[in-house]
Amino acid sequence: MGNVMTRIAIMGAAGRMGRILIEATELAEGAKLGAAVVLPTDSLLGSDAGEMAGLGKKLDVSLVSELTASIDDFDVLVDFTSPAATMENIKICEAAGKGIVIGTTGLTDAQKAELSAAAADMKIVFAPNYSVGVNLCLNLLRMAASVMGEESDIEVIEMHHKHKVDSPSGTALRLGEVVAETMGWDLNEVANYGREGQTGARPHKEIGFQTIRGGDVVGDHTVMFATEGERVEITHKAQSRMTFAKGAVRAALWLNDQPNGLYDMQDVLGF
Q1: Bridge partners of 231?
Q2: Which pairing describes strands 219-226 and 153-160: parallel, antiparallel, or unpaired?
Q3: How many Å apart are CA 229 and CA 140, to the nearest integer?
Q4: Which percentage of the chain shows pLDDT scores above 90?
């Protein structure tokens, strides 16, 4: 590929994640910001993305309100927005032959199926979490579940900042999925998302989820394997959103050289 720069578009560029994605794109070797999209109502519309993100310099990319307005200015879109917006952006990218890296969580099963179908004609990375550490934890969980799962009670505990709108987190669900897959279970059948009142004894074939919301926590996840006499806990704590942003930009650079298909962060990292 030589020194060809991958041009990245950022959706929701003025949001918490969007600003950090702009910074991560600017820091990454081989990447440059091609487009930055904000809501039509955003007061910063038309201003420079670099100044908006607080980089202290112009990137010569103006904030636009429509992805289609910048369709020739990017190779890969990075989208951490809402399910409805993401589904719309998949259609736009598919039509224009662009890749998309999706960090949006809270998609329904129907939306996920639509996303998978689109990947026949385009390249998509779709992962609930782009941090290297969380993806390492997925592998550790496969090991723990295969060794201890049969005699353990398995619980997933997660905490996020008070502004997060979906619960449990996409990452917590993925952690649960990986454990369930390893155990040969269907997560939809074994997940328990809350206990209250006279619940009776806990069945073994269950993965409990506890969701905590408060303050400014970026993201804490623990999976607990509790047996008679001991327990193992695998925990990941994110201190900064930059860890997700760097991972997403890494995924965009990687995706640009791949054939059409649906990938996740495990593919990007070569796990």
Answers
A1: 226
A2: antiparallel
A3: 21
A4: 98
The structure tokens 């993806």 sit at 135
- C-alpha–C-alpha distance, residues 84 and 93, integer Å: 15
Q: Are 115 and 253 in contact (CB under 8 A)?
A: no
Mean pLDDT of the chain, nearest integer: 96
* 3 band by pLDDT with thresholds 50, 70 and 90: low
In a shared domain, residues 153 and 60: no
**How many structural domains compose the chain?**
2
| Whether residue 137 sits in one domain with residue 121 | no
Residues 26, 66: Cα–Cα separation, whole Å: 22
DSSP state, residue 82: -
CATH of the domain at 149: 3.30.360.10
Check which CATH number belongs to the domain holding 48 and give it.
Answer: 3.40.50.720
pLDDT at residue 165 greater than cutoff 50: yes
Choose among 32, 113, 102: nearest CA to 265. Answer: 102
15 lies in the same domain as 119: yes
**199 burial class (0-12, 13-18, 19+ CB within 10 angstroms)?**
exposed
**Active-site annotation, residues:** 160, 164
Domain range for 46? 6-126+241-269
Domain membership flag for residue 1: no
**DSSP state, 151?**
G
The string of pLDDT tens digits covering residues 220-235 is 999 999 999 999 999 9
Over residues 133-143, the pLDDT tens digits come to 999 999 999 99
The whole-number pLDDT of residue 271 equals 83
Torsion of CA 262, 268, 270, 271, to 10 degrees: -80
Asked whether the predicted pLDDT for residue 1 surpasses 60, the reply is no
